[in-house]
Specification:
alpha+beta; Pnp Oxidase, Chain A; 7-stranded antiparallel beta sheet; 39% strand
């Protein structure tokens, strides 16, 4: 029997970073916070990125097959907060955020991040309410050194 409270308590103990995933389809661009992300392979270099299925950005990744991940510094909680709400409710999230488009994907990369990876989707699993996109890392760069932002450091919860 599944103890719901125990399940939630234990799943919330899984440590997560907090990142911004950038997507682009034609002229339409968006970014959203990601915490369910991890490296999954050395050869090819790959990560898994779990994206909520009922989001517009999920559809953009399915259509274009590419995305970026900007790595935030531990002091960038306010920047992460800008990207939590759905684009359909808040509009252009990049309006006052400096960014540039990745050379490999054309997706937005936050200039004031620690660095980034650009990914091409090489697989996906669509079970539950999130899709696990496996992205081969096809581009990367470092902007500066710093301690990464962790979800637990923000006081926010996404999981359980």
């Amino acid at each position: 029997m599944l103890d719901e409270q125990a399940k939630k308590t234990m799943l919330l103990k899984i440590p997560h970073g907090l990142y911004i995933c950038g997507v682009k389809d034609g002229e339409n661009m968006n970014g959203f916070t990601v915490s369910w992300l991890m490296q999954s392979s050395f050869k090819p270099p790959a990560i898994v990125n779990c994206v909520k299925q009922d989001s517009g950005s999920h559809e953009m990744i399915k259509k274009t097959g590419v995305f970026t991940i900007s790595f935030l510094e531990s002091t960038q909680k306010d920047l992460a907060a800008k990207f939590f709400r759905p684009q359909r409710r808040v509009g252009n999230k990049f309006e006052d955020v400096e960014f540039y488009e990745g050379e490999e994907t054309g997706c937005p990369i936050i200039s004031d991040s620690l660095g980034y990876v650009e990914c091409k989707v090489i697989g996906s699993v669509g079970e539950g309410d999130h899709t696990v996109f496996v992205g081969e890392v096809i581009g990367s760069g470092i902007h500066r050194e710093g301690k990464p932002l962790l979800l637990e450091d923000t006081g926010w919860q996404y999981g359980g």
